[in-house]
Amino acid sequence: MHEFDLIKRYFQKPAAGSVKIGVGDDAAVLAVPPGYELVVTTDTMVSGVHFFADVSPATLGHKALAVNLSDLAAMGAQPAWFTLALTLPEAEPEWVDAFAQGLFLLADSSGITLVGGDTTQGPLSVTITAMGLVPQGQALTRGGAQTGDLVFFSGAIGDAAQALADLQKWGQTPTRLRARLECPTPRLALGQALRGLATACIDVSDGLVQDLGHILAASGRGAKINLSPFLSGDDYELLFTAPEHSLADVIAAAVASDCVVTPIGHIQAEAGLHLIDAQGREYQPEKPGFQHFSEP
């Protein structure tokens, strides 16, 4: 199958609504509603680095979009549009069809529209740029945590890392854990509900300790976290801070978003991250999180 046939068959849909020109032209033309700001994020996933080579194409289609939607969630944005750059060793119709099904199943349920991209032959990789909308001045950022704020995370932290560890060691893991690794749930409703409540927010993609460090660095603060040693990695949950007096509102936002949130500590004025285990002892994790280009 040739490149343009592949695009037309699997990825081209009629432009509608805010999409003035979509897939099929040199570039997309999009209408940003008055009173809103555009939020843009990009993630690349490479075979052997971000996913196993034998991953199902439908699962890959889901996760490639989900990790970008998680970034939009962390900014409090409503998904709007995305582009797809897909590099394939071969354009096998059965593989591409399944990939597109997984991709569009999540896209349709999240209210986001494919508006362009590129296809190339080469080692398997997927790059998505996702765009969302947020009311002017209401985007959540990493830099607003204040002394005394509570620190929360959504969902469960550590499931994806446990699945990865199991697969690397044993070649298998419980179905529930594998789903958490390969089919994360972007916390879009929660992110939007936290606008005006959260003082800082980030999605946990590289490890809770490392990602919390980004909030602390951007906010010029420290934190004391009560959490037993754990694995963390590709969870794609939200890690956020909010004033202690807003606890009831945060819980209400979580319930309305059908998502559990857990307070795990406080923001402190002094720089530094202090991790406290169940016995009240401070500890340091063996590895704070994942980084590309780091030493093995």
TrEMBL record:
Residues at which Mg(2+) 2 binds: 43, 71
EC number annotated for this UniProt entry: 2.7.4.16
Pathway: Cofactor biosynthesis; thiamine diphosphate biosynthesis; thiamine diphosphate from thiamine phosphate: step 1/1
InterPro entries: PurM-like_C_sf, PurM-like_N, PurM-like_N_sf, ThiL-like
Binding residue positions for Mg(2+) 1: 42-43, 118
Binding-site residues for Mg(2+) 5, renumbered to this chain: 206
The protein's enzyme class: transferase
Residues noted as binding Mg(2+) 4 in the record, renumbered to the chain: 26, 41, 71
Record keywords: ATP-binding, Kinase, Magnesium, Metal-binding, Nucleotide-binding, Thiamine biosynthesis, Transferase
Residue sites binding substrate per the record: 50, 234, 290
Enzymatic reactions: thiamine phosphate + ATP = thiamine diphosphate + ADP
GO BP: thiamine biosynthetic process; thiamine diphosphate biosynthetic process
Domain PurM-like N-terminal residues, every copy: 24-134
Amino acids binding Mg(2+) 3: 26, 71, 203
Additional note from the record: Reaction mechanism of ThiL seems to utilize a direct, inline transfer of the gamma-phosphate of ATP to TMP rather than a phosphorylated enzyme intermediate.
Protein name: Thiamine-monophosphate kinase
Taxonomic placement: Bacteria, Pseudomonadati, Pseudomonadota, Gammaproteobacteria, Chromatiales
